[in-house]
Amino acid sequence: MRTSKIIMIILMTIFLFSACAVRQPGSNAPAVLRVMVHDSFSLSEPVVRAFEDENNVKLEFIKAGDSGAALNRAILTKNSPQADVLYGVDNGFLSRAIREGVFESYASPLLSVISDEYKMDPNDGALPVDFGDVCINYDRSYFAEKSLPIPDSLDDLTDPQYKGLLVVENPATSSPGLAFLLITIAAYGEDGYQDYWKKLVSNDVLIANDWEAAYYTHFSASSGKGTQPMVVSYSSSPAAEMIFAETPLNEAPTASILSDGMCYRQVEFVGILKGTTNREAAQKFVDALLSKTMQEDIPLQMFVYPVNSEAKIPEVFLQYAQTAENPVVFDPQKLDSNREKYLQDWEGAIQP
Q1: Cβ(102)–Cβ(84) under 8 Å?
Q2: Radius of gyration over alpha carbons of the chain, in Å?
Q3: In this structure, are 85 and 138 located in the same domain?
Q4: Is residue 131 a contact partner of residue 144, using CB atoms and an 8 Å limit?
């Protein structure tokens, strides 16, 4: 009998604690906002905490692979969305996102401080957040030691003096790889880019599966172990080299080739997913992501440029990173309609 009374007391205690833990109507517990992002997404913790405290919201970031994989997940689950907001769709995937109808329209008041060149969704479902230029980066010391001129055009890359010196990424599995493929299509047309790739292959271009392998394994400047002194990367990469150097550097060990038609302008977007039950909190987060505070946080977190014209650019970007004056901007609709054909034709062109 004594044992039964003890068990009863324990059960009643557990019940009382559980009842107290239940969120009561009208309580001030924060709402949970789920934000699906690509794997490279990052915001500094103080900025995230400030947003949460100011808006009584708890942010839950769901990493879903690269931008294409994240969009695929949003499309496959659009009838029962796993998140309220999606960040990271770029202009290479924008038309597909619009066609699949994954976003709700939201004309944020912050659009007024963003240049029209970045606004690519006429229905304001996908709002621009940041941009970056995909370019060829080169190892400055290699070219100086070899007294080798820096290539100034795509044609230069097929010259025998650059044989085996370039590593690119597979466009079927890598966003910068796809960007470089689009650069070649823009330059040589849909009837000529395959021949160009055959020339690159004949000149021993190395094709890596992703950016990480290309930059950190094969590129000679980043790890010192690679053998290719040129890599398809971003124009902000030299600034990143300065920041993450193990010992302080006086100058960046890398630089970008910014000649006309040699870079691709990549724009990333954020949108509220259809079916969200947290529309108000989702709008607040979109506004925050476009605000001066978060826009100034983004460059040193993700090494891209803010689209908010009022946001200040970090000094390290001003010194060591550049943007292309005449980058390639590929029509999103054209890419959406021809993506698979481009990739299949590219696959055929690189075969021995």
Answers
A1: no
A2: 24
A3: no
A4: no
The CA angle 6-11-17, to the nearest 5 degrees, is 125
Is residue 241 a contact partner of residue 305, using CB atoms and an 8 Å limit? Answer: no
CATH number (domain holding residue 294)? 3.40.190.10
Whether residue 181 sits in one domain with residue 141: yes
The count of domains in the chain is 2
Q: What is the pLDDT of residues 212-234, one digit of tens each?
A: 899 999 999 976 689 999 999 99
How many C-beta atoms surround the C-beta of residue 102 within 10 A?
23
Domain ranges, residue 99: 29-131+267-313
Answer for the pair 87, 71: CB distance below 8 angstroms, yes or no: no
Q: What is the pLDDT of residues 1-60, one digit of tens each?
A: 444 444 444 444 433 334 333 333 455 888 999 999 988 899 999 999 999 999 999 999
CA distance 23 to 66: 36
Q: Is residue 126 a contact partner of residue 96, using CB atoms and an 8 Å limit?
A: no
Distance of CA 45 to the CA centre of its chain: 19
- Whether the CB-CB separation of 125 and 103 falls below 8 Å is answered with yes
The encoded tokens of residue 234 equal 């971003």
Judge if 200 and 338 occupy the same domain: yes
